[in-house]
Amino acid sequence: MVALLNTQNDSAILRLHAPSTRLALLAGPTNWRPHEPVLIPNMRLLAISDIHVDREENRVAVDALPTFPDDWLILGGDVADTIEGAEWALNVLIRKFAKLIWVPGNHDLWCLPGESIPVLPESIPVSSESKYLYLVDLCRSLGVLTPEDPFPLWEGEGGPHVIAPLFLLYDYSFRPDHVSEDGAVAWARESGIMCQDERLLSLDRHDSKPDWCRHRLDLSREKLARTPPGLPLILVNHFPLNKQSVRIPRIPRFSIWCGTRETETWHVDYPVHVVVYGHLHTPGTSLIDGVRFEEVSLGYPREWRAAGHREARLRTILPDS
Q1: Cα–Cα distance for residue pair 286/116, rounded to 1 Å
Q2: pLDDT band at 229 (very low <50, low <70, confident <90, very high)
Q3: CA torsion angle for 118, 120, 121, 123 (degrees, to 10)?
Q4: Is 310 helix (H, G, I), strand (E, B) or coil?
Q5: Dihedral angle at the C-alpha atoms of 279, 147, 184, 252, nearest 10 degrees?
Q6: What is the CATH number of the domain that holds 236?
Q7: Residue range 91-112: average pLDDT?
Q8: How many Å apart are CA 165 and CA 274, to the nearest integer?
Q9: 123 Cβ neighbours under 8 A, 6+ residues apart
Q10: What string of DSSP letters covers 115-126?
Q11: Using an 8 Å Cβ cutoff, are 58 and 52 in contact?
Q12: Residues 108-132: what's their mean pLDDT?
């Protein structure tokens, strides 16, 4: 069963796809009331991010994941550096889970030398924006939900919840107050840190990464504002939504590539039950203002092997454990 909350217009449209398909049209947010949920037992919401299947060990680990035909999987970005890798991973995972929800990470948006997009003429350079749109189309062709689709309604164990897959970037604001936006990258470089994004994220529709971030923030705020009230939210984004979540003591100045202060209070501004993110390669659970934050990354082989893991591990988001 898949339920979608359509927040693209002023009406909330709830579509329930089941063996006997039902269609319910509900009024707009001002007088919307949640329907009586038909919760599906033994259906879990799982999550993983940063699977980096361009690394052979990670590809083997993802391929070896068991099949969970009743469960949904949140795929929290950094699937692969290449389109070919992303396509491989999506095709593998859609066969293992009932439904897949994808959000992009920075690696997914990298423009590698010589890379092309099948639908674009070779004369047109690949940009991160065009690569993102191509990956969205690829996901839709496979039945995978993206940040460009209506928010799905979770009616499995622990539900009902609205799952909000987001595509938010960073704007260098996870920096000390005395460092300016324009000086943030130089400040990070002083400590010997430089993110490959500065070389491999290529823009053609926005003036800068902070500009693209602001655009995505506006789109996400509008979509969240149209979400019908009365149901708790699960926010999903590749980058952390709160600076307290950024714990990288070995490379602290890498924080400027980890999110935006604009989302610092989203977990209390909205009726959020769980925030799911990745990017940091430091998987774990934390509570901020009573809200559960789940960092669900797998990371590079050396990282998950060093942690004593022999396989890719999935995090259970719902039901609460």
Answers
A1: 40
A2: confident
A3: -120
A4: coil
A5: -20
A6: 3.60.21.10
A7: 97
A8: 12
A9: none
A10: ---TTS-TTSPP
A11: yes
A12: 87
Structure tokens at 144: 């995978």
The model's pTM is: 0.88
pLDDT in tens, 123-144: 678 899 999 999 999 999 999 9
CA dist 58 and 79 (Å) reads: 10
Is residue 26 included in any domain, yes or no?
Answer: no
Q: To which residue do tokens 């309604």 refer?
A: 153
Share of residues in the chain with pLDDT > 70 (%)? 87
- Flag whether 11 is in a domain: no
Q: Which two tokens stand for residue 149?
A: 């689709």
Domain count of the fold of the chain? 1
What's the residue count for the chain?
321
Q: What is the span of the domain harbouring residue 168? A: 38-318
Is the separation of the CB atoms in 232 and 271 below 8 Å?
yes
Tokens 């774990």 -> residue: 284
Instruction: Give the C-alpha separation, 215 to 227, whole Å.
Output: 19
In three-state secondary structure terms, 220 is helix
Residues 6+ apart with CB under 8 A from 137: 119
> What is the tens place of the pLDDT at every residue in 4-54?
554 443 333 233 333 222 222 222 333 334 445 556 678 999 999 999 999
CA-based end-to-end distance of the chain: 23
Inter-helix orientation angle 56-63/83-94, to 10°:
20
SS3 label, residue 162: strand
Question: Could you give the angle at the alpha carbon of 282 between the alpha carbons of 285 and 312, nearest 5°?
Answer: 90
Assess if residue 20 is contained within a domain. no
- Cis ω for the linkage preceding 160 (within 30 of 0): yes
Q: How many CB atoms lie within 10 A of CB 13?
A: 15
Buried-state track 63-84, b at ≥16 Cβ within 10 A, e below 16: eebeeeeebbbbbbbbbbbbbe
Counting Cβ atoms within 10 Å, is residue 271 exposed (0-12), middle (13-18) or buried (19+)? Answer: middle
Is 312 among the domain residues?
yes
Tokens describing residue 8: 């693209």
Please report which helix (H) or strand (E) contains residue 211, including its range. helix 209-225
